[in-house]
Input
Amino acid sequence: MKLLYITNRVNGPGGLERVLSIKASYLADYLGYEVHILTLNQKETNLFYDFSSKIKYHNISTKGNSIKSFPHYVKGLKRVVKNIQPDVISVCDDGVKGFFIPLLISKPCPMIYERHVSKNVEIKRGIRSLKSKIITAVKFRMMNFGGARYEHFIVLTKGNLKEWKLKNLKVIPNPLSFYPKEQSKLTNKRVLAVGKQSFQKGYDRLLEAWKLVIEKYPDWILDIYGTISEHEKLDDLADSLGISGNVNFYAPVKNIGEKYQEASIYVMASRYEGFGMVLTEAMAYGVPCVSFDCPYGPSDIISDQENGLLIDNGNIKGLSKAIITLIKDEASRMMMGKNARKAIENYLPEKIAGEWDTLFTSLIHSTSK
Output
């Protein structure tokens, strides 16, 4: 089966790139798919994550602003699709243009749209203006219109189903990045958070909670790994809170598995999520997670009090108390870590890739009838 993924880029350290590297590689290496990936203006050939050597890459290069370059992009899309003649196309583009690709290329085969972020991505800092609200409303109407043109519209969690008024919705979660034989001993005095520095990830809220934690446990350290943004001014916030000595900010690393293994607690303070793959990664290492119950993802992954702790979204004192609970109660930490590793087996790549294979196969069979 020829499968074409249409996305923007796959060379970065983001969640979409990681997910695509796992499932596309599994389909190519183990299920015999001929996998193609089409990118836009991707100059770099060195990929952050490891993709199967069997995957074939295509790129469309455009110049100028989005309006001027759009016709060239559409022409490139048609050319690549015509050359490959895929059996199925899966679009992984969270921008508006991704919703209209079936119309742009006259839908030559069954098509799937994969939504990797929540609609809450439109939430920005501060009070939104009337103009901003109107633009967002129009954008959502366009998304619903375009999304209905796909055979299936895939979201990552049950919560995401509530965001869309479509009849073609289906939930397929992200696969695990790894399921190591080794796991954390949960004895290091280290708490971990992973993800780019942004308003979405809520590191400002995490630092406020961390201040309350180290007032009682000053020998514990918080390590944050993710693309660093000067705009977020997290160093300044840590200084103002007087916690700089207990917080480390690191750029993304390829050996992130080692960092999970060194941690005793994982914490996620996001305002919203598309899924929360970092939670599954931490749990694969037997690390219990503390997370805000934000829309959407954490409540699908964490069973509160069984393999982690869920806190009302935005309750900073509650977040600090939950972290403190796992710091002082080693027995609970160990128990939840063990349960987490067991529960996360539902996200093994072979299981998730199997769901995709079933979906793709059903589309081909229904088309051939």
Observations:
- The mean pLDDT is 95.
- The domain at 190-347 is CATH 3.40.50.2000 (Rossmann fold).
